[in-house]
DNA sequence: CTTGATCCTCACGTTGACGTGAGGTTCTAG
DNA sequence: CTAGAACCTCACGTCAACGTGAGGATCAAG
């Protein structure tokens, strides 16, 4: 498959795919003229990469984790990285949840203000 | 209170506090010699700012929200911003949760590999 | 054969929340 | 009164995941 099709089906930019290759996350072989050729599996692989990026993992972390998908061989570094990132994500979810709760408070207060009759300018 | 003390008590760097002032998030008056003077309330304010930064809000968004804490007057922009950011945070939590689940899968597989007797080199 | 879509490789630009000196002033404890 | 801690204002550096041309080759269709 050519790069444009992979980009379309995985929902990323062509530039992003070239960047992933530069980072060693996706390996593409080349046609005689130098155009990248991807296997079908690349689409799912890229989607997975996007999932991890969206969770705040850096290229380096993803690079350490991805080989496991190919070989199903877990080195100690890979296992450690998996658990580290999982822990980090949990911490991040907790922080987001706290922020969400605080925003909910403010939204409630805001709604109360909107409904306060004496302070409404109109009507 | 002086900037160093605020930084220590709020758990941020002195540089960060100057940056917050530059962004209009924390207003400090000055001593005759030009040193920043903060009220006690600044510590809580900065902690709240940190909470929002940790949740991925940008300075601009925080700047739109913060006046509500002071005046308890909600403009339509503030209410909209509050709800937009809340929605964004929810989406982000969902993404993180999906990533967490995927990592859990991999961690399980990794553990199974570790326990596979035939593939252990030692012993 | 030609034309428009798609691809290639550089390589610099972007963004945000600070870090990090440089060079100088002010405060405070002894 | 003096040294060191703490403060000040520039102002450039950082880092990551791409965006965005520049300038050119290749491919698919008519």
Automatic annotation (TrEMBL), chains A, B:
It comes from the Bacteria. Pfam families: MerR_1. Keywords: DNA-binding. InterPro entries: DNA-bd_dom_put_sf, MerR-type_HTH_dom, MerR_fam. GO terms for molecular function: DNA binding; DNA-binding transcription factor activity. Residues 1-68 form the HTH merR-type domain. SMART domains: HTH_MERR. This is MerR family transcriptional regulator. It comes from Microbispora oryzae.
